[in-house]
User: What shape does this take?
Amino acid sequence: MELGMIGLGKMGMNMVFRLLGGGHKVVVFNRTLSKEDAAINKGATGSASIGELIKKLTPPRIVWLMVPSGQVTDDMLNEVLKWAQAGDIVIDGGNSYYKDSIRRANTVKEKEMEFLDCGTSGGIWGLKIGYCVMVGGNKDVFDHCEPVFKTLAPEKGYLYAGSHGAGHFVKMVHNAIEYGMMEAYAEGFEILKASDFNIDLESVSDLWNHGSVIRSWLLELAVNAFKEDPELSGLKPVVDDSGEGRWTVKEAIDKGIPAPVIADSVFMRFRSRQENSFGARVLAALRHQFGGHAIYK
Assistant: This one.
């Protein structure tokens, strides 16, 4: 297929590479020209503006936004709407709040265009192993774009989640669960470290991935982190949050659903920006390992 990709960050760039490898034609736009050049060198078509990107695509166009959630997404969407035409499709692949996605879908519908909200998980490892993709919107639009999702995802790695907003809703809860899992690992490793046994945390994290009920990809990344720096001494225990945990806690409160683990994991991220602890350094290390997110030296 043919599509435009706006935003060549940690995930957007690798998604372009994976799409090109799958035989798709990709037109790219990024404010940082050096990143655009890197995509062009791999076979993408560059553009100097969003308007130029739109003109280089064949109607009905598919335009994928891979930019930070919030106002940046609104700004980019508004720019796309200036140039796109009826029948074109806009996909938001960022971590947008699902209610914002419902609002944006209505805005796009007013232009007689289509909108899909696409929760995308895989971080900096997605190029190699594929991205887990959760899509909301009209089913026939999903079906039209399915070859793109099939290329991005590993086998059984993409899903039509439901109507507008469903894709980002599922991704929101996914990330909140991720918060809780990482917090549990962090607390467990801090207890191990504080013991009198001088336990090798790299060996334990590797061991637990062989037959244990708590084996996971996050534990594989913990092995990497402890191998690089057993004390995690090169990290400040500061863990940012990108919003999904907060949104999920709010959803739980609104629906009257108890979610103490997720809520506590969000609060612990707040705490990490206030105090120094080994557990928070574990969180920072894992977040950097799986997603390439910023760490504080």
Q: What stands out?
A: Residues 257 and 291 are 29 Å apart (CA to CA).
